[in-house]
Prior knowledge:
The chain has helices at residues 7-17, 48-53, 57-75, 113-130, 156-165, 184-196, 214-225, 265-278; strands at 2-4, 25-27, 38-41, 80-86, 135-141, 169-172, 178-179, 201-205, 212-213, 228-231, 246-247. Helices cover 37% and strands 15% of the residues. The longest helix is centred in the first third of the chain and has 19 residues, at 57-75. The chain has a domain at 35-150 and 180-210 and 248-264: Rossmann fold, CATH 3.40.50.720. It is α/β, with parallel strands linked by helices. The protein contains eight helices and eleven strands. Strands 3-4-5-8 form a four-stranded parallel sheet, with helices on both faces. A three-stranded mixed sheet has the order 9-7-11. Strands 1-2 form a two-stranded parallel ribbon. The radius of gyration is 19 Å and the shape is globular.
Amino acid sequence: MLYARSPERVQKFLDQLGRATEAKVYYVEEYGREQHDIVINCIGFGNPQKLKDNLEDIFRITTMYDDLIIGYLEANPDTIYINLSSGAAYGTDFSRPLDEHSQAQFNINNLKADEFYGIAKLHSEARHRALKTLTIIDLRIFGYFSRYIDQNEKFLLSEIIACLKNKQTFITSPVDIWRDYLHPHDLSSLIDCCIIRYPLNSVYDAHSNKEVSKFELLSSFAEIYGLKYKVNDAFQPQSVTGTKSYYFPTGHRASEVGYAPIFTSLEGIKLETAAILATQ
């Protein structure tokens, strides 16, 4: 069963995949109408511009659907709840790689808009840890890439692919950044590992087998696909959730539940990019 704020969009996606008959799609407000053993919550703002334009909704939407699921868990305590959280829960200081001793940092006396998303995620995680009798697992996603990415969005990889397809030059700043991108297979594997360890109430940083730098990524795209890119000293990238130089985890506590990612960030990106370009 699938629940969505826009069931018609999900149904259209299933139609495109040729899997329209494999799942029923309901409005998310109808959640709980059918009995189930596992629920995965991936509701949120997938579009950076929508996030920027609706800052006041970050807390409301996060809490609203979390309340809906927790209400079901309280009536059905054997249910497994897997919540896709975010690395943004660590705050906005990503000037160095994160490890298991890293602490969330927010400027509590002068909160800024780029902190709201992370605070909402941290609040949700804290609430889940307090509900220690329920099986709730938060998976912090730092980056994710699949062949179904919306190529019109303002993400690093979607912009690179758009430039590649349109034969445009990708413009970037001279500052390198590091990112971690999960391949769909590894995300699915991590979810399976958590389900097998039932009962469990914990949080894990989701990670690939190795992070990738921006210039390593650009060099690979240039070599394999002929991407043209240009370094512009005056270029200033913008991020709704703040500047992130080292946005990847080095703590791999998820191994405690048996998680062992297969793909590095770059390997996963190559596989999914090949699938995207093969359909063009």
